[in-house]
Structure formats: C-alpha cells, structure tokens
Amino acid sequence: MLPHRALRLPALPIAVLIGASLLGACSNSEKTGRFLIDPPVAGVQVPNRLGTAELKDVSLPEYAADQEVAFQTGDGAVRSNSDNLWADDPARSFTTTLARAISDVSGATVISEPWPLAQPPARILEVRVERALAQADTTYRLSGRYFVSDDGLSGGGTNHARSFDIRVPMTAQGPAATAAAASQAISILAQQIATLSGPGATIATTRPAASDPFDLPPLF
C-alpha cells in the first residue's frame, strides 16, 4: 500500500490575490448609498433684506459633520452606518445649499466664503447649528442660532442674533428620508434668515468717536 501524501495546491501568484481583493472591494462599494442635500424650491418670494452677504462655513455638531448619515434610536443613542454616507462633505453641502436657498427665495446675493467678488459684501452671515438629527420620534430637528452683522462703515447699521428650531415630520426612518427632511429643513431656515425672523435681538452698530492722534495726555 502506497504511503498517504497530503494533497498540495499550487500557490497562487500575488497579483491574482491582489486582483481578487480589489474585485471584492469594488463589489462591496456598490452597497454604499450616498445621499444629497438638495432643498426644494420654496415656492414663495420674500423681500430682499440682506442685499449682499457672505455666509461663513456653517458650524455643525460632530455627528452631523461626519460623512455617515446619523440617526437616533429609541434608547436615545445617535448611531450611523458606514453603508449610508452623505454625497458631499456635510458642512460644505449645508453651507452652499443654504446660501443658494436664501438667494433664491429673496433675490439677495448670498455667497459662501471665501467671497469671490471685488466689491465686499454688505453683511456677514454666520449659522451655528446645535442639532441636525433624524430623531427617534421620526421627526428631523434642525436647531441653533444665526447671526447677521452689518459692516458698520456708515455707523448706522444693525446686527441680528436670532435662534431657530425647525421640525420636519418624516414618514419613515432611513437615510433617504433623513436627506429629504434635512433638505426641507434647510429650505425653511433659508426663509427664516431671509426675513430676519425668529426669537432673538436686533443690535445697532455703534462705533467710538475717532480720536485725535495728537490729543495726548499731559506730561508730568
């Protein structure tokens, strides 16, 4: 009887192994969904109260600035899934779409920073988002504060510090529903900013009187 010998398979070339690995990665990438923020047309037109304004990069909570689409579960935790991503950097997308939405609804010239025109803007707009989340109660909530500052060159401008708390009902939980609700919330926020509405304060710009450079204190 012949001695038993273990069956040996020929070793695969490294190039074949790498190719198989890349093929598997390509197949897995098809499972990744990328979702756009695209505010719908408001369907209303409001007076232009901003003129020209530079919108600073919108400040988002860490979970909302992440590439994965976040959502809240019944236990209150904020979770996400690597298979569901925003199609663009969330902060950049929020900023550019908000600027466009404000411009569309009011006729103002609102442009995200950096300001590209030779003529400087009359106002600076800053938005600080405190919550941007698909909540466990199937409501998308967008809340925070926005600030509109006048350049103050004429000495008689006004500044605004106002808050917003927008809630959009969602028909279901999921990244597609989250993207649609977030887009709707941005459209509503654009109308609020364009009309300078919401709880807050209006502050007049004041400048100290120019001092005489030669008006020096007496010497002792």
Automatic annotation (TrEMBL):
Q: Which residues form the ABC-type transport auxiliary lipoprotein component domain?
A: 38-194
* Record's protein name: Membrane integrity-associated transporter subunit PqiC
Going by the entry's taxonomy, the superkingdom of the source organism is recorded as: Bacteria
Query: Where are the annotated coiled coils located?
Result: none
